[in-house]
Structure formats: C-alpha cells, structure tokens
Amino acid sequence: MEGKAMRYVVGYQPDQRGADAVALGVAIARAQDASLDLMLVLSQDAPYVAANPDGPRVHPEEQRTLTAQREALSLVPEDVQATFHVRHGRSFAATLIEAAVEFEAALIVVGAASNGLFKRSTVGSVANALLHASPIPVALAPRGYQRTDPIERITAFIGERQGSEAAVDVALVAAGRRDVPLRFVSLVELDERADAFGENINAAHRHANTVLAAAARRLPEGHEAAVEVAHGRTFEEAVDSIDWLDGELALIGSSRLARKNQLFLGSTANKVLRSLPVPMVVVPRDYERVESHPLG
Fold first, then answer.
1. pLDDT by residue (tens digit) across 186-202?
2. Helices (H), the chain
3. pLDDT in tens, 219-274
C-alpha cells in the first residue's frame, strides 16, 4: 500500500451534522496530501439515479442532489482534494462502510451529535450503527464543529483494558506523520473508599509512564509526548478537568466486547464522548492496518 494517497470517507447529509463532518474531515486531511470522499446516501427507493446536469430535464430529487453536491463541495477549501459521491442503500452506515472498504480508506468521518439532553455530544443513529460494525476507525465530529485548520495535538486515552493498544498505535503513527504533539491521558474514576484514591491514581501514573516510555522509543527523536492522569468522581468529571486545545483530536479504543477488527463503543468511551469538547476517533479492537493505513 506504500505510496497510495490517503483517503477519508465523509458521511454527508445537507444538514448541520453533514457540515460538522466535512469540517472535521478537512481538519484531519489538511496538509497530509489526503483526499476526502464526500458520500451522500439515498434510500433505495429514491427516484434519483445519477447526477445529470446536462440532461434536458432534471428530476426534483436530482436537483436536490445537485444542490447537496454544490453545498458540500463549497465547504471544502481549495487545498484539500474532495470528490462527491452518491449511492443508494438501505443503511447509511452500511453504505459508508462499503465505500470505505472499497476505497481502502483510513477513516470514516461523521457528525456525531443528535438532539439530546447531554452537555456536548450524543451519538446519533448513523454514528451508533458505525460504532457497532465498522472495521475502520470512525471520527465523530461534535455538534457545531466548524474548525478546518490542521489538527494541533493528538490525545490518546489509555487504559489497561483490551482495545486501548490499537488506539495507542494509531496515535503514535498519526502524531509522528503529522509532527504534532502527542498526549496520553489516563482517566481515573475515584472509588468511594478513601483508602483507594491514592492507590488508583498511583496505578494510573505507573501505567501511563510505561506507555510513554514505550512511545518514546517509537516516535522520531525530539518529538513532543506527554502523559496526564485525570481523575474525578465520574469519568465525565475527569474529562472536564483536562485542558483541551481548539485543534485537539482525541483517540480511544473500542470496547473489549467488540468482535475482532470491529468497533463497539463501550460504557467508558460513551461517557467520554458525552463529555468531550473536541472530536473523537474510535479505533477498532486489534486494528491491524495501522502501518499501511494510518490516520495520516
């Protein structure tokens, strides 16, 4: 796969979530020679077949699609290559996965937020379906995400549960290729027993420093990397205690309950997502294509 251009599939709909996804796709792809495949998925019974701007008559559905194409591409700056695709499918998520596999894409990008009571993000139906089935990392844009400047720092959530290793691997490759700082964060939900506070935090520090030492051997010499242990009475409180850059990208591994090479957003990751003020990438358990398809 060496020498192939990086491709990211972006799930697009002509709404706020679609705009959020395109903005995040641009931010991740920018300055990486990566291209975006903007994917509009229509239901299988839609009358639209293919965009035909030169045809004598334009079906209303075709006109809506042409408008969506124009609006989507207008969100992409000139320095990022983007192609607009239209496909029919019963499932938006399944169609995105099929396209990503076909294009050998390194990432699927979607707008995560749907209407809800949560503070920042709640997983919508498309994102939820992706997080149960995708063999490819999925990037979730928080509600109202508009930043298109290049990513400034990558934060990888680490832990001792199965699944975190793949996220660490992806973070190492992505930060190294981008030459951006890398931060490892260990979250500690404090036990109600006072005598367990120090024990839990010390264990998290030991593990975090072990991860950092291993990472230092794999990163280019002089590359900035750090660790941080965040704690609180809840995971949400721990996430809130962390300082975030506007250009941050967070990575987390999928649940140990996921089937091999597939995603599943476990309870901890779900709590993290609901509290995050920045985009999050969920990496499949035992993800095996890091070196050939890194998150450029």
1. 888 765 555 555 667 77
2. 16-29, 60-74, 92-102, 125-133, 164-178, 194-218, 235-240, 267-275
3. 877 788 888 888 888 888 888 899 999 999 999 887 654 455 455 566 666 777 77
Report pLDDT for 217: 81
Cβ density class 135-156: b for 16+ within 10 Å, e for less:
bbbbbbbbbebebbeebebbbb
pLDDT surpassing 50 at residue 132: yes
Question: Would you state the pLDDT for residue 249?
Answer: 95
Tokens of 1: 């796969």
Strand partners, 179: none
Token pair, residue 294, equals 């890194």
- Measured CA to CA, the distance from residue 214 to residue 270 in angstroms comes to 27
Tokens 């941050």, located at residue: 248
Q: Please choose, from the candidates 171, 92, 113, 137, the residue with its C-alpha nearest in 3D space to the C-alpha of residue 258.
A: 137
Cβ 176 vs Cβ 276: under 8 Å? no
Burial 100-134 (b: 16+ CB within 10 A, else e): beebebbbbbbbbbbeeeeebbbbbebbbbbbebb
**pLDDT over 70 at 216, yes or no:** yes
